[in-house]
Amino acid sequence: MIKIAYHSLYAHPLPEGHRFPMLKYELIPGQLLHEGIITPDHLFEPEPLSEDIVLLSHDPAYWAQLRDFTLPPREQRRIGFPLNAQLVERELRIAQGTIDGALFAKEYGLAFNVAGGTHHAGSNWGEGFCLLNDQAIAANYLLNKGLFKRILIIDLDVHQGNGTAQILENEPRVFTFSMHGEKNFPFRKEISDLDIGLDADTGDDAYLSLLAETLPELYQKHQPDFVFYLSGVDVLSTDKLGKLAMSKAGCKERDSLVFQFCRKHGLPVQVSMGGGYSPAIKDIVEAHCNTFKTGIDLLS
Questions:
Q1: Where's the Histone deacetylase domain (predicted)?
Q2: Fewer CB within 10 Å: C terminus or N terminus of the chain?
Q3: From the first residue on, what is the mean pLDDT of each consecutive set of 10 residues in the chain (300 residues)?
Q4: How many structural domains comprise the chain?
């Protein structure tokens, strides 16, 4: 059975100006249930991540500042909102949801996290609304437990997965791939194992052609036995922060290419949703729901 991590804290209310993007975390599972794509049995609520697992990926001093709410104001501004207990618990549950999802994917082939994709969090910093890096944490967890030998992270959010690249830069068992807007946040990029920077206004044809060429090369280079997929929908032409020119149909085809790649090579895949900032919430929710539908169609 396909399993999907969701918790009410995913839609945790934030200060004015940040609330709108959080609506999607309630609306995505609601829409999937409404359409009959999933049933309540598909959803599970993750517990908070334990400290020992956090420390597989994050610096002890940084984690202590998050845990004790002593992160300096300058670092809180870098994250984008003030630190509080609910926010830290939210990040802990998101990261645990991605670990649990990876374990479900090992069993069933595919699992999702309604949230996640917190790829701007580095080992000792938070940034861009990210405090803890869920997929880097889960990758280190799988390796630490000896569950997989070679992991591929496919990050197709419009923003580079800088924190993921930094955390895993000295881990040869994980291959980090980020295809993102070159002239977009973060303006100081880290070095992934493979970075593809896209010009502004890159549309469906160029994007999909490049991705289709790249995925087979990734398998040949790394021979992974597990995949994490970050499926941000901020690649849409309607996105306020994205600067690309993809349609919803193109975004859905992007997902299809990734899931077909996983099916071809028999790779279990955990999917985290990443960003989406179109002015109309229906555009965000539809594009994210397409990711779920495409994955379920191809891998369940």
A1: 24-290
A2: C
A3: 94 59 89 97 98 98 98 94 92 98 98 98 96 98 98 98 98 98 94 98 98 98 97 97 96 98 98 95 97 96
A4: 1
